[in-house]
Write a structure and sequence with these properties.
Length: about 500
């Protein structure tokens, strides 16, 4: 809010020596040393007794008077106020009561279960997906662009448009056409606080309680929980080596939307082939459903050009494209974007405005400058090479330290792989992860991403997501070696 609600006669308690005088008198009034109606020393006398200036005592008296503890008037001695003002009635003991009522949405949020985050201590090798290396961040280029934008003259500082800075949306339009094959106008882009806010807006605006939504199984848990919090009912559709099995989309169970990761299925890593992409879009058209395409790390494909986005072949305006700067720059930026069908732009802008007005403007302008100068795309190419080397180091370490039965999937793209241990069961994943933690290795089980957890009926072994974008080659090798020891200890135990 722009205006304070503080009453005009309210004063903050004095500081320093004044605070000492104030607390001295307040304590004596509270413990009854100075009873109701008792006269207070003159300001001159109390100043001499406490070794402070008379002005300091006067300020303390004014504060006590403003709070109702004493009564002062011109030409008369200050005295303690009546018992009602000086001694408020003690609060009754708080009775046990029921939890405050929540909305239906609040109750759904409260009931959501998420895996507990396990913070990594110093010295840990954490194969955490979503983390990127600090040394990869383009510090110098960012600092130069940031300083230039910080010094840019503005007539006034005010709220920006909820859809985001016009320069960034224009720059993004060109970048997405070059890098991801997207066809859109800048007006279709809404800048958000990371892909999670984009998903949350989709859930709130496109689903009513009870609506079905198609979800990849296994899939991104935070997205599934967002749709469930909005009251949606998940319709899990299996995933194979190529991504969503579109032949399993049931026409007799219509859904309001489908959430997919077609360029690099999360977590298994498949790339949805063109025939399945068309089948998915045809399904959406038949059912008048929306398709939320999460292109969370589509810029990172190795050995060949990144696959164009699903949105690039959408002829009917069914696809909402979600992109992020978290993987190429930093998840701490909390900047992402939505590319929307034209009909949805007004309501998404309005919802964004109600949620948080707009994303940080200065960072948006810095990003626009980096994209316009070509620095961002040069950075992406450099980081792609670095992550390709990390991926190679991980595959070599798995081959070197783990049993021959272990195999790795989802290696063609992205910033993580899935490590499969087929001689172990999904129910073994928590014990393996705990054993790895004791050896200072952060390991993240696959089972929570399945609709039925480790009780999923499909035959499979234990699996773990290994993110490698924040680690160097030595740390990767050490982490896999310690993981191998944890696996051996589990087998012998």
């Amino acid at each position: 809010m722009d205006q304070s609600n503080t009453p005009p006669d309210h004063r903050s308690p004095p500081d320093g020596a004044g605070r000492r005088v104030y607390e001295h008198l307040r304590t004596q009034i509270a413990d009854g040393t100075l009873g109701p109606g008792a006269a207070l020393p003159s300001t001159r006398a109390l100043a001499a007794d406490m070794g402070v200036s008379r002005t300091t005592v006067t300020t303390a008296y004014e504060q006590l008077s403003a709070e109702g503890f004493i009564v002062t008037s011109g030409g008369r001695v200050a005295c303690v106020a009546s018992p009602l003002a000086a001694h408020p009635a003690p609060r009754p003991a708080r009775r046990a009561r029921k939890a405050p009522p929540l909305s239906e949405f609040g109750r759904r949020v409260a009931a959501i279960e998420m895996p507990a985050a396990v913070p990594a201590d110093a010295g840990h090798v954490d194969f955490l997906y979503g983390a990127v290396a600090f040394r990869d961040f383009p510090v110098l280029a960012w600092r130069r662009a940031y300083q230039a934008q910080l010094l840019r003259h503005q007539e006034r500082l005010c709220y920006a448009p909820p859809e985001g800075d016009a320069d960034l949306r224009r720059a993004l339009r060109g970048y997405l056409a070059r890098a991801r094959g997207l066809r859109c106008d800048a007006e279709q882009i809404v800048v958000v606080h990371g892909s999670q806010q984009a998903i949350d807006l989709c859930a709130r605006l496109l689903l009513d309680p009870g609506d079905r939504f198609v979800f990849e199984d296994p899939g991104y848990l935070m997205a599934r929980r967002s749709f469930e919090a909005a009251g949606g009912r998940a319709v899990p559709v299996p995933v194979d080596a190529h991504g969503l099995v579109t032949s399993a989309l049931a026409d007799d169970r219509p859904a309001r939307l489908a959430y997919v990761t077609p360029s690099h299925q999360f977590p298994l890593g498949g790339v949805l082939p063109i025939a399945r992409r068309r089948e998915l879009l045809q399904w959406a058209t038949r059912h008048e459903a929306w398709v939320v395409e999460d292109d969370y790390d589509g810029e990172f494909r190795y050995g060949q050009r990144p696959v164009d986005a699903l949105q690039s072949i959408d002829q009917d305006g069914r696809v909402l494209y979600v992109g992020t700067f978290s993987k190429a720059l930093s998840p701490q930026l909390r900047l992402g974007y939505l590319v929307l069908p034209a009909d949805l732009v007004p309501v998404f802008r309005q919802a964004k405005r109600l949620a948080d007005r707009h994303a940080p403007l200065l960072e948006q302008r810095v990003l626009a400058a980096l994209i316009d100068s070509g620095a961002y795309e040069r950075h992406v190419r450099r980081v792609r090479r670095e992550n390709e080397r990390r991926r190679a180091a991980l595959l070599e370490a798995v081959a070197r330290h783990l049993p021959a039965q272990a195999h790795v999937g989802g290696t063609a793209a992205g910033l993580h792989v899935v490590l499969w241990l087929p001689w172990l069961a999904p129910a073994d994943e928590p014990a393996i992860a705990a054993g790895a933690r004791r050896k200072k290795v952060g390991l993240h089980p696959l089972s929570p991403l399945f609709a039925h957890g480790d009780a999923d009926p499909r035959p499979r072994g234990a699996g773990f997501i290994l993110g490698y974008a924040s680690l160097d080659a030595d740390a990767i090798d050490r982490g896999v070696r310690l993981l191998a020891a944890a696996i051996r200890a589990h087998a012998s135990g």
